[in-house]
Amino acid sequence: MHTNCDLQGYNTHTMSLTPSTMLALGTTAPDFKLIDTVTNQLSSFDDIRGKRGTVVMFICNHCPFVIHVVDELVRVANDYRVLGFGFVAISSNDIEKYPQDGPLEMWKNARKNNFTFPYLLDESQEVAKAYDAACTPDLYLFNAQDKLVYRGQLDDSRPGNGIPVNGRNLREALDAEFNSKPQDKNQKPSMGCNIKWKE
After folding, report:
1. Cα 153 to the center of its chain, rounded Å
2. Nearest to 74 by CA among 91, 55, 93
3. What's the gap between Cα 17 and its chain centre?
4. What average pLDDT does range 50-56 have in this prediction?
5. Fewest 10 Å CB contacts: which of 12, 69, 129, 152?
6. Closest Cα partner for 190 from 144, 140, 147, 146?
7. For residue 107, what are the domain limits?
8. 3 or 5, which is more confident?
9. Domain count for the chain
10. Are 180 and 173 in contact (CB under 8 A)?
11. Is residue 5 part of a domain?
12. pLDDT tier at 6, thresholds 50, 70, 90
């Protein structure tokens, strides 16, 4: 288990197991306009928002915690996009120090994992700061009025803990939103590698 997010090519001193900061529920979704590395077009929150709600996912290419759940993130997006939810993935890592998270590698990763949502490069890191994102993966669900109703973990699975990846927490939050039911306020933070901030 990579508890220190130790990966070849990553500086282990800057890699630490980091929880979500848990942005306040009810926060309005910060807007953004970023390049989609799949289409090379600018994409904004308004472009990707869904009628029922919108999921914003901070991920990257090489974090073992993201790799562990990426197939399920794609499954959740495919299952709920047809119900009126928008999905977007954003990578905010410092691409100068971590070129494996640069735009070409993002494009390859999106192709390899059959992303059906935009994969945006937050090169300035301003969007991650606006969302108070801390780790990869860090997940946010906004309702139809663009208010934050869920943030935190996909499910209880982590690399090496033996719990199957099923997307339970995010799926339950999406189901509640779809069925106009109240959200569980007891939300668990995600856990993963820290976002690689520029110095």
Report:
1. 10
2. 55
3. 16
4. 98
5. 12
6. 140
7. 12-18+27-194
8. 5
9. 1
10. no
11. no
12. very low
State the pTM of this model. Answer: 0.92
| 88 within domain boundaries | yes
Closest CA to 149 of 19, 29, 45, 20: 29
Which tokens belong to 186? 């007891």
Number of C-alpha atoms within 13 angstroms, CB side, residue 118?
Answer: 26
Main-chain dihedrals φ then ψ at residue 171, nearest 5 degrees: -60, -40
The arrangement of strands across the sheet holding 17-19 comes to 17-19, 191-194, 135-136
Element (H, E) at 171: helix 168-178
CA distance 11 to 185: 36
Q: What percent of the chain has pLDDT over 70?
A: 92
The CATH number assigned to the domain holding 180 equals: 3.40.30.10
Average pLDDT, the chain: 91
Q: Which residues are CB-neighbours of 54 under 8 A, at least 6 positions away? A: 29, 45, 48, 85, 86, 87, 88, 141, 142, 146
Judged against a pLDDT cut of 60, whether residue 121 lies above it is answered with yes
Contact 96, 44 (CB under 8 A): no
- The answer to the question of residue 164 being in a domain is yes
More confident: 51 or 15:
51
In a domain, 118, yes or no: yes
pLDDT value, residue 22: 85
pLDDT at 194 over 70: yes
Per residue in 147-177, pLDDT tens? Answer: 999 999 999 999 989 999 999 999 999 999 9
